[in-house]
Structures are given as structure tokens and as C-alpha cells.
Design brief:
This protein is an alpha+beta fold. Helices cover 20% and strands 41% of the residues.
């Protein structure tokens, strides 16, 4: 039971990580909702009511996870199936974020108890606005390249000698490294993929989000038969070397708007 509880805690910690990353990316750009008909993700200037995403986080061979995430922006709910490598195979956990509660259980279980913890749910509508048409011009302070292929446009932002710190641990210490941020948008400016790669001398953190579809049904039901897990248990896991090795630029919001010196 202790092992199962610890594994579920890791899954909850993974979602906490995803929410932290989403908050940082949302803060770094502003939205301004506004074509080619062949673009399957066109939104016609309207924020999506839902989205299906593929999310991956890794630090190379040391740590990685991936997740299929369904988000209902109107009801501010999300469901995710997170795959975490375990020795020579992988385990999958289903998670649901509903009204400031985070629920988790094995994705292979069709019934049984859910573990849940109280968390602060971000305003997912802000994510919908950012996906509609992020204001790329607000991202300054980087070397920028732009390439086009069909109805897609890819922006690559790069900067070296950036102060980096742990994503999930408060600390005044930092290390120097580089940041490479790639954003791909469709014919109407809607986001189709975004990847943030942060590299230091010892490690590389890569966070990637790919949009699989917009405005497809994404029902997220509130689980029953739940067992609470203390946030202290998640905090212990977030303090492990696997999570503290995840790096992000210090003061990323202000960095993205700073001028190159």
C-alpha cells in the first residue's frame, strides 16, 4: 500500500509540475484572439471550448514522463493519463483536476478508490486565450528565427548566459545556461506546439506541449469513492532529485520582455 500511495503521489506531483509550467508560459505572453482551410486546428478567432494535448517532460535519461491531457475550458476541468517509466516498462495513472481537487488512480483500474488532494486550480480560460493567438511580438530579449512550412509558422527564441533555477524549489542560488523556446502556430495564429528546452552544464530540461485537437468533447466527471492524500506527501516527492533537477529561467516573465544587452 505504501508503494502504491507513493506512486500515486508521484503522479499528483507530475500534474503539479504541469500546472506550474502552464502558469509560467501563460505569464510570458499576452493573448489577442483574432486562412487556410486545410489547417485542422483553425479557431476562427474564438477561444477553444476544449483541447486535447500531448505533454512530455524530461531531463534526458534520468527522468521523463508523458501525458495525454483533455481540458474543458468552459467548466475549468482537466483529465490526464500520465505515463511514467518504471524500470523496463511504464505505468499509467489517470488524473482529474476539478474544483480545486486533484484526483488520481491507476489508469488500468475501471473501479476502485481515487486518491485526492486539495490544490489551487488555475484559470484554464487563460490557457484557452493563449492557445487562440499568443502575441509573439511581446516575446523580446531573445535571438529569433522564423520559418514557414505550409500553413504553419515556427518561431525559435534562443538566449545564452541565462540564470536558471529549480522549477519546484525556492532557492536564491542559480546556475548559468541557455534557453531555447519554440512556438509553432497555424494559419490563424493558433498554437499547435510549444517546446521549452533549458540547458545547463549538467542537465537539460525539455517541456513540450503538442495540440492534438480543439473543440472535441472532453467530459470530466467528478470521481466518487475517494481517499485523501496530504499535500505534505506530494511536497516530499517534489523535493526529490528527479523533480528538483527540472530547471527553468529565473524570472522567466521579465526575461521574455527584456532587451538583449
Amino acid at each position: 500500500m505504501a508503494v502504491k500511495k507513493r506512486f500515486m503521489g508521484i503522479a499528483l506531483a507530475a500534474v503539479a509540475l504541469a500546472l506550474t509550467v502552464a502558469g509560467v508560459v501563460i505569464a510570458a505572453t499576452d493573448s489577442n484572439p483574432g486562412g487556410l482551410t486545410k489547417d485542422p486546428l483553425t479557431l476562427n478567432g474564438y477561444p477553444p471550448s476544449s483541447a486535447n494535448l500531448l505533454v512530455s517532460v524530461s531531463t534526458g535519461a534520468d527522468f521523463s514522463l508523458s501525458a495525454n491531457v483533455a481540458v474543458d475550458f468552459k467548466s475549468n476541468k482537466a483529465d490526464a493519463v500520465v505515463r511514467i517509466p518504471v524500470v523496463v516498462t511504464s505505468a499509467a495513472v489517470e488524473l482529474r483536476l476539478i474544483q480545486n481537487r486533484l484526483y488520481a488512480r491507476s489508469a488500468s483500474a475501471s473501479s476502485g478508490p481515487w486518491l485526492d488532494a486539495k490544490v489551487k486550480t488555475p484559470a484554464l480560460l487563460g490557457v484557452a486565450l493563449e492557445l487562440t493567438k499568443p502575441d509573439i511580438n511581446l516575446i523580446t530579449g531573445f535571438q529569433k528565427t522564423v520559418t514557414k512550412s505550409g500553413y504553419s509558422t515556427t518561431y525559435v527564441f534562443y538566449r545564452d548566459h541565462v540564470a536558471l533555477s529549480s522549477l519546484l524549489r525556492s532557492s536564491t542560488s542559480s546556475v548559468l545556461g541557455s534557453v531555447r523556446w519554440t512556438i509553432t502556430v497555424g494559419s490563424q495564429g493558433e498554437v499547435s506546439k510549444s517546446t521549452l528546452a533549458v540547458k545547463s552544464k549538467r542537465t537539460t530540461t525539455t517541456v513540450s506541449v503538442t495540440v492534438l485537437s480543439y473543440n472535441q468533447p472532453a467530459p470530466v466527471a467528478t470521481p466518487s469513492n475517494v481517499k485523501p492524500i496530504a499535500l505534505a506527501e506530494i511536497d516530499k516527492l517534489l523535493g526529490s532529485k528527479y523533480f528538483t533537477s527540472l530547471l527553468i529561467p529565473r524570472d522567466f516573465t521579465s526575461l521574455s520582455r527584456a532587451s538583449l544587452s
